[in-house]
Design goal:
This protein is mainly α and 325 residues long. It has helices at residues 4-29, 33-55, 66-85, 99-121, 127-145, 170-192, 195-212, 217-243, 253-266, 273-289, 296-309, 314-319; strands at residues 88-89, 93-94, 156-157, 245-246. It is globular, with a radius of gyration of 20 Å.
């Protein structure tokens, strides 16, 4: 099969086909654990896909992406907290567990947070950009750690999932996450295939040249940063509903680094490579963790081999491009 586009479509269909059938197989085998496991993997995949938009296509190495996940998760947690106790958030905003209100609010807050951070960070480049995104992420992290009303470092336990998600079974919630991941993937596929995506890829190759031909590169990159932040916040929303728990641990720089590893494992600049990377990382963590708590010692050399021999991640092995840069 020589056509790369056909291979990509076939890989897309295979991945989502397997995810579609997995809950049925898990139920048939009497293993509901796999439904919860792959729900978590898909949520991580959504976060990785959002990061790939700015990392793989825009060349923006952000060590603060997990902060947007935390913003989305805490929006759900804080509004649910005030819905339970009847108080007002900041003395003004009533709490609610209605998903039709909470979820859009979380996505908008994620986009707004990314817009503010991006507006400052994108005025720098290279090492300075990485450090500024890291600094902002740590600021957000310590802000929630110090907020004792909502659990501080211990996190915040949700009484239940958002309405009407609370009425869904584990399998139904799995399919809700799958549909969300599919829609997000299709959205990014359309974006990167449009003029917007062409400009973004041009900025990754040579931003100075793009500016020289009259492209407002700052605005394009900032828009991509905000879209990625919104999608990451949505991943945080799904995570909060899946775990019924939110914690500052979801927004540490280590989680951002894990997302970068997932994108590299699956294949940067491939849209759904992040999903494959999230699956590979999570499954290796589970399998190797059964043998030793220091599973990273084994994972490290494996990751080095992937970087050396599958330059565009696991997806490149399917495409036959393992040695290409």
């Amino acid at each position: 099969m020589a056509n790369p586009a056909l291979r990509r479509r076939l890989t897309f269909l295979i991945v989502f086909g397997l995810l579609l059938l997995l809950p049925l197989a898990a139920s048939w085998l009497g293993q509901p654990f796999y439904i919860r496991l792959f729900t978590r993997i898909m949520i991580l995949g959504l976060a990785a896909v959002s990061l790939d938009l700015i990392l793989g296509y825009g060349g923006m190495v952000s060590l603060g992406h997990a902060a947007f996940i935390g913003v989305g998760a805490y929006t759900v947690g804080i509004l649910a907290y005030h819905s339970d106790n009847g108080g007002l958030f900041l003395g003004l905003i009533p709490g609610t567990d209605n998903a039709f209100i909470v979820w859009p609010a979380a996505i908008l807050l994620g986009a707004l947070t990314a817009l503010i951070i991006g507006a400052i960070s994108l005025r720098t480049e290279g090492f300075y950009f990485i450090m500024i995104t890291l600094a902002f992420a740590q600021m957000v992290y310590f802000f929630f750690v110090s907020w004792q009303t909502y659990g501080g470092d211990d996190g915040l336990q949700l009484m239940d999932k958002s309405w009407p998600v609370a009425s869904l079974s584990a399998m139904q919630f799995y399919y809700l996450v799958l549909v969300s991941l599919l829609l997000a993937t299709l959205l990014i596929t359309r974006l990167v295939g449009s003029r917007f995506g062409m400009v973004l890829r041009g900025c990754r190759q040579n931003e100075r040249r793009m500016r020289a031909i009259g492209m407002p590169t700052y605005r394009y990159r900032l828009a991509a940063f905000a879209i990625a932040g919104a999608l990451a916040a949505f991943a945080g929303v799904l995570s909060a509903n899946s775990e019924t728990f939110v914690s500052p641990a979801t927004m540490t720089w280590l989680r951002s680094a894990e997302l970068i590893v997932m994108v590299v494992l699956g294949g940067m600049g491939t849209v759904y490579g992040g999903i494959i990377g999230a699956a590979v990382y999570s499954l290796l963590e589970l399998i190797l963790g059964n043998y030793t708590v220091h599973w990273q010692i084994i994972f490290g050399p494996f990751f080095v081999l992937v970087v050396l021999f599958a330059r565009r991640g696991f997806l490149s092995l399917v495409m036959g491009q393992s040695r290409e840069a």
